[in-house]
Amino acid sequence: MTANHPGAAGVGALVRRRRQELGWSQADLAARLGITRQALITIERGRSLPQLGLARALADHLGLSLDDLTAPLAVAAPAPWQWVGPEPVVPGPVYWALREGRLLLVPAGADPAGTAAADAWWDPVRHRLSPLPGAARPDRVLWLAGCDPHAGLLSRFLQEHLPGLDRVRVFPWGSRIALAALSRGAVDAAGSHLYDPVRGVYNPPALLEELAGGPVQRIRYCRWEAGLVGAATPETVRWWGVREPGSEARALFERRVGRPPVPVYEFGDHWSLAAFVRRQPGAAGVTVGSLAPALDLPFTAWAEESFDWVIPAADAGRPWAQALAEVLAGAAWRRTVRQLRHVDWSPAGDPA
């Protein structure tokens, strides 16, 4: 990858100096890394920066920490940063986005897709943020938060419709957590399928506006079945897998099961929950029905829920909001997702 970062020359000089201290030729180190000598030369000359996986391998072979290797890239944050959630106490990759002069940070470990596309490396000891190769421009990032396990597909479609953006990320947070983030301006859109037992409806406007901190617009997404995966009946369950408090899946579990006399394990996304049920004999969970066929799990529907994307009313005219509605109403999206079972996509893209 071509490097325009002013710290690239420092990284290259560090690699070259450490290689020479170890008595290795360029060919020796390149062979250990599984890359060409020419690729190593471009790194040492500061003309390219290694991607995260190669950077980790370089650090390991050179006897450095990743913090040491990326130290020449360290820059002052372009704006005062703010963590979405607790500040990590261990080093690791993070995602970033610029919102109203604030650099917002989320640990990449919070994303089940992994750390490959992280934007920066966080050093809690030195309180330092170092951009990583391939980092998105923080002012060209769209953040969505919602628990739909198939929302990664949506991010791909949105990215195609919004070529001016570097990244579209979706965090798998439950409805209340997502709406709370929306109320703080930490995400651009929040996915919700909250049930109001008093009104007997999903996503009542008054509840959404209360949780989102002001007027909102809903964009219809789908109606899906949620319920029991794994054991045939709740009485036969030996372990439960559930979502975190604040999620509608957790609320459904508590309405139907209450406090079971067996161990209960929490998961931060539906895929991890369903995978736990699949590999653990006697386990069951409450999740989205569309995952059951994918993992060959039995499924019993307990509820049909309406899932909407919620955005601030003031953002309804923004290009990304219009693109979201257009993608969901488009033939390409519907053609892609129509074979998912236990989901009705007919409402997708309609304003509520």
Topology at a glance:
Blueprint: H1 8-21, H2 26-33, H3 37-44, H4 52-62, H5 66-70, E1 81-83, E2 92-99, E3 102-107, E4 120-123, E5 128-131, E6 141-145, H6 151-161, E7 167-171, H7 175-183, E8 189-192, E9 195-196, E10 201-202, H8 205-212, E11 216-230, E12 239-243, H9 248-256, E13 264-267, H10 270-279, E14 283-288, H11 291-294, E15 299-312, H12 319-329, H13 331-337, E16 343-344
Parallel strand pairs: 1-3, 6-7, 6-8, 12-13, 12-14
Antiparallel strand pairs: 2-3, 2-4, 4-5, 8-15, 9-10, 11-14, 11-15, 11-16
Helix pairs in contact: 2-3, 6-12
Short structural summary:
The protein is 33% helix and 25% strand. With 352 residues, it is of the alpha/beta class. Strand 6 (141-145), helix 6 (151-161) and strand 7 form a beta-alpha-beta unit.
Walkthrough of the structure:
This protein is α/β, with parallel strands linked by helices and 352 residues long. The chain folds into 3 domains: 6-73, 434 Repressor (Amino-terminal Domain) (Orthogonal Bundle); 83-222 and 311-343, D-Maltodextrin-Binding Protein, domain 2; 224-305, D-Maltodextrin-Binding Protein, domain 2, CATH 3.40.190.10. Helix content is 33%, strand content 25%. The protein is built from 13 helices and 16 strands. It has helices at 8-21, 26-33, 37-44, 52-62, 66-70, 151-161, 175-183, 205-212, 248-256, 270-279, 291-294, 319-329, 331-337, and strands at residues 81-83, 92-99, 102-107, 120-123, 128-131, 141-145, 167-171, 189-192, 195-196, 201-202, 216-230, 239-243, 264-267, 283-288, 299-312, 343-344. The mean pLDDT is 90. Residues 15-69 form the HTH cro/C1-type domain. It comes from Candidatus Hydrogenisulfobacillus filiaventi. This is HTH cro/C1-type domain-containing protein. One of its GO terms (molecular function) is DNA binding.
